[in-house]
Amino acid sequence: MENPKSPTLHRGWDEPVSYVWSCFVTKVEARFRFANLPHRVEAGSRRKAPRGKIPYLELSFESAANPTILSDSSLSYGQLPDLNASLSPVDRSHDLAPRSLLEDKW
Fold it and tell me: Where in the sequence is the domain holding 51, given as residue range(s)?
């Protein structure tokens, strides 16, 4: 059972097992699964969304509509573990290269 302070991912659909077209949703759900972080899924509302856009993520301390902000703020608040913490500097650069090529160009 989810903690009431668990992050809530507003995906546009209220069906947790259905695929959603958004890259943001896919990245966030994968990140939560890798970290074994319990989270809730809801449809969401454009009136409550930051910038009026769905999908978005609601954390206990802020709302975010950007995966980079999500990762940085969640790591700093200790909700998500740093998956790259055990990597060497060379391996970190290998991890950063495809992210910068794929994610930052959208």
Answer: 8-102
